[in-house]
Amino acid sequence: MDLIDQLERELGKQDLPPVHPGDSVDVHYLIREGEKERIQVFSGTVISIQGRGIRRNLIVRRIVQGEGVERTFPMHSPRVQDVVITRRGDVRRAKLYYLRDREAEKVRRADLAAAEAAEAASSDDAE
To answer: pLDDT at residue 24 above 50?
Structure first.
């Protein structure tokens, strides 16, 4: 076991931020498109942290166009360039899977009414 612990200390990243479930984070992830590589930022809420040591994973969830999107990021992967905490969460659970059932927008009726009014006004101005 000492050999495994030693390898984890040597190969793992040393400068990881203290991330907790409920935190809003920006994960800077290195992606490859053909021959080129670039950093893509995935912003969302940490709903789960799994594993220990070098096997630690973050599950981050965000809402994109009304659909929930989740990604799992290995914290010690060389592809994960940086994890920036944008807002601290105050939660009472370790796993926030209940966020999967949450509606994307609670104010849908007001938003729809405002969008329809704006659309009607713009069509009247065009005529």
So the answer is: yes
